[in-house]
Amino acid sequence: MKKKIIIVLLILLGIYGLFLIGVKVHYGFENKSVMNRLEGEIHYLERVDGNLVLMKSNANLTNKEVLYNHAGLGETNSGQNHNVIDYEIQPETNEITVIAMYDNEWSRLKVEQGVGTYYGPEEYGDTSYDEITKLSQNNVTVELINGSIYLTKNNEKTCIKDIGNNYDQNYNSYYLSALSPDGRYLIYTDMRNSLIISFLDALVPWNITYTYVMDLETNEVSPYRNISDITWMY
């Protein structure tokens, strides 16, 4: 009896192992060819211990650094919200301001050396989830139209990511994240079959990657990192 149980367990472990390999191959987790070629610096929001934190790193995701973490400062009368929901970088001075919950209201804070100084209330509230529909750099434009991504270059417009006939803004769509300053690399989010992705995310011992970077000259694609509000500095 024990021998049969061991055999069954080994078979189940083997099936699970094949499942993990299949997921990795399907989502291309081992392919980093495009990401490794990226240059420049990016600022972005990423969850750290459940809270959205302002980060910066090289575009290839090396040399990560926390710029501002609002943890412990977002207490409200109805609970807590320690998220940085948006940020802004002044191009002339590189001054950084963030929007976060402070003293029971959405507020703008100036960030210097990881410390936020209160500027005042932010009347617009949460602006971090506005959908980007168009990005342009160096005479290259990418557009999001009904969930599909279109590239315009040399006055020619082509569809580079087609959502097909099952477009749904919430559950089956592509989304734009960032375009490199030279117009060659596009970071985008692939939320096709997002319900299936959520199911797979619960079955694998890592986070399913649904953010990718594409070389717009070669159409090569590499998995990126699930981050948001990306600003490509140079």
Outline the structure in words.
The protein has 234 residues and is mostly beta strands. It contains two helices and 18 strands.
Largest beta-sheet characterization: 4 strands, antiparallel
| Rg on CA atoms, Å | 21 Å
Low-confidence stretches: 16-28
Number of helices: 2
Question: Strands of the biggest beta sheet: in what spatial order?
Answer: 3-2-1-18
Mean pLDDT: 81
- Ends distance: 65 Å
Question: Helicity, in percent?
Answer: 10-25%
Q: SSE string, helix = H, strand = E? A: HEEEEEEEEEEEEEEEHEEE
What percentage of the residues does DSSP assign to strands (E)?
35-45%
Summarize the entry for a quick read.
The chain is mostly beta strands and 234 residues long. The chain is 15% helix and 42% strand.
Layout of helices and strands:
Blueprint: H1 2-27, E1 41-48, E2 51-58, E3 65-68, E4 75-76, E5 79-80, E6 84-89, E7 96-102, E8 105-112, E9 115-121, E10 134-137, E11 140-145, E12 148-153, E13 156-161, E14 174-179, E15 185-190, H2 194-201, E16 211-215, E17 221-223, E18 228-232
Antiparallel strand pairs: 1-2, 1-18, 2-3, 4-5, 6-7, 7-8, 8-9, 10-11, 11-12, 12-13, 14-15, 15-16, 16-17
Key phrases:
18 strands, 2 helices, mainly beta, single chain, 234 residues, four-stranded antiparallel sheet
